[in-house]
Amino acid sequence: MRPSPHLCKQHLGWHFKKLWATQSARKIRDAGIEQKLLEKGVPVVRAADILWEKRPLEKIEVVGLKPKPVVFDHTHPNWHDKTILTYRDNNVLLKGLQQAKILTNTVELKQGLPDFTLKSTKQIDRRVKEIILTSHVFDAEQKILPKVKDPERPAWNFPRVYGITQPRVIKLLLNNLLQLIENSSDLEVVKQRYVFDDTHFSYNFEKSSDLIQFELTGDTLLTSTKPLPPVTEEPTESFQLPDIHPIKPTITLNKENIYEVRGIYPISLKFAKSHPHTIFVPHVETEVKNLYEEPVTEAQIFGRSLLKTFTVAASYAKEKYGNDVTVLPKPVVVQCVHTNGRFFHFGIFQLNTLDLEGGVKNVWFQTGRLPLFETCCYKVGRPVLEGYNNEVIQYLDAFYNNV
Q: What does pTM read for this prediction?
């Protein structure tokens, strides 16, 4: 075997590094040119002083850049030293209906609603069942639903379920039921109604030296060309408010220092159909939560209905009668329908006064929670609706046609 020839190759990288190390260590010799120029009166200036001119920095606001995040502290423009207590859409009161009565100076004269004429709905029951199936089963929405939890096995991870979300179920159900009732009602009554979606109401007041403000959304608001008549003219001075001592009536309200005190009734009174008639309140379990992470009780649902209806009525009364009114010249009546897609709760609120610490009191009537059905799902691949209750559609029809 012949040996290969030896190639005398050089590593160029090593040579470049060596040359750089050698040349970088060389010192610049002073040739005395600067001294000779100064002797002849020629000024010597550094090149950096001419090429790099020093200019003051100016802040330029460039359109399109993301603004700085707002700091929620005492530097905020809406900061106040006095704390305000607020109630919003996702809040519930600790003591529920009893606490809501104290806050709004409201009493119940009797159990249940005033006398209503409930009409037979056999001719539209079949259509109501189709609406229930459409909203709960047949809709094409497929989104990830909340996690399934078992209190007996808190560490067990169930498979994630896809289906129709609860807000969409409630929206489809209410819209279709309202449309069905409109089609079956008298034309003159339908002409007096108007439906608003996603309206915002705000009402503020002072109670026991506390500043309180209700900031709530009228998810679906039915208005009318004329206000509802008073439900009762019975004196209310002798009725007593509930006693929840030693609990303070403002417990579980949000404490905030960044706020804006305002009163909002979102519909102009110049509009012919500006009078509030019925407010539809959705109850979404994933959004409406207890402050202490406990399950929402039935009493808290009733209290939420009362506060929602009170906010609509009070903001309307202040817009109509001014800021200085206490006892109203004519009571304001607003109806309420509270639902989670299966259970319905009906209430009627009569606002007699805006003085929430006076002798004259407001009045609240309500039913219990009525199930629209027992079961609505797929069984063995077939859609099944069981336990349909037509009492709910009878109350909805009576509320809509109440004049």
A: 0.82
